[in-house]
Amino acid sequence: MIDFFKQVLEITAIQIISLFGSFFIFGFVLSKIQASILNNYRRTVGWRGILWTAWLGTPVHEYGHAIFALLFRHKINEVVLFSPDATTGELGHVNHSYNKQSFYQSSGNFFIGLAPLILGPLFLVFLLYILVPQGPEIFRQLSGVQNSLAALTAGVGGSLRLLFSLENLKSFYFWIFLYISFCVASHLAPSKNDIKGAGRGWWVLVIYLFLFNILAHLFQWDFTEYIINFSHFFAGLFTVYVYVLIISLVHFLVSFLILLPWRKY
Q1: Which of 99, 169, 107, 103 is nearest to 134 (CA)?
Q2: Is 112:69 a contact under the CB 8 Å cutoff?
Q3: What CA–CA distance (Å, rounded) separates 256 from 210?
Q4: pLDDT band per the 50, 70, 90 thresholds, residue 62
Q5: What pTM was estimated for this model as a whole?
Q6: Cβ neighbours of residue 12 under 8 Å, at least 6 residues apart?
Q7: Contact at 8 Å (CB) between 188 and 244?
Q8: CA quadruple 226, 231, 235, 237: dihedral positive or negative?
Q9: CA distances from 48 to 44, 67, 220, 252, 259 (A)
Q10: Residue-wise over 246-256: b if at least 16 C-beta within 10 A, else e?
């Protein structure tokens, strides 16, 4: 019996990693870069320095929560798109409620909490396509980056060369794109409250998946193979995440170099 449950746990872990592994890694790395960017502003021009990106990035972040709350049939009680509070550090919030007896609504907390990590990157790719010359080609350079480290290095290098080409640097729309991208990418990572809310839905998903795998294991259903095959559809999303990390790293370097003379400590 112990071996049975051990096998089910291993199967469940493999399925979770296949579905959400790259998503979690991206969120963790992005949160670290975002914290470093905001720290650049705090250590130079103070807390209000983050407002030059937050005024736009925060509403995009909160819209992500609100849209997914509606998709999972939650009741939206309040939406504050932008209301910076230096005391609490809060920039905005979406207050929502749900039926705790509903699996769909309860599990939806996971996706609602992490919604900005889904919709925000897609919005940035949309901007790339409509505002930047050779935008589709820049993104195409990143195709296949998940296959190997060499492909990742080559794809990132090719994208950067095209992104900061002379043609783009001469384009007014490119600079609009770059600023909007900095705003959005700087406020994609989930807050502590977002993670707390997502955790409620996460455990519902894990428990139900574990119970389903007990049944699947008893009847010898190879459900894991379907999940792994389905996860291949996330390859395009991984490409989007790599692109967002590039934008975030560029923002970090730009903010660090420009603000260096005003660094206070």
Answers
A1: 169
A2: yes
A3: 46
A4: very high
A5: 0.83
A6: 206, 209, 210, 213
A7: yes
A8: positive
A9: 10, 28, 58, 17, 14
A10: bbbbbbbeebb
What DSSP assignment string belongs to 116-145? HHHHHHHHHHHHHHHHSTTHHHHHHTTTTT
Whose CA is closest to 30, among 172, 177, 170, 187? 187
Report whether 119 contacts 187 (CB < 8 A): no
90's CB contacts (< 8 A; 6+ apart) are 83, 84, 191
Residues facing residue 80 across a β-bridge: 93
pLDDT above 70 covers a percentage of the chain that reads 91
Max CA distance (Å), the chain: 68
3-state secondary structure of 38: helix
- The C-alpha atoms of residue 113 and residue 34 are separated, in whole angstroms, by 17
Tens digits of residue pLDDT in 165-186: 888 888 888 899 889 988 998 8
Q: What is the DSSP letter of 189?
A: S
Residue 250 — φ and ψ, nearest 5°? -60, -45
Quick check: 62 and 96 in contact, CB under 8 A?
no
Q: 75 has which bridge partners? A: 97
User: DSSP secondary structure string, 58-121?
Assistant: HHHHHHHHHHHHHHTTPEEEEEES----TTT----EEEEE--TT-HHHHHHHHHHHTTHHHHHH
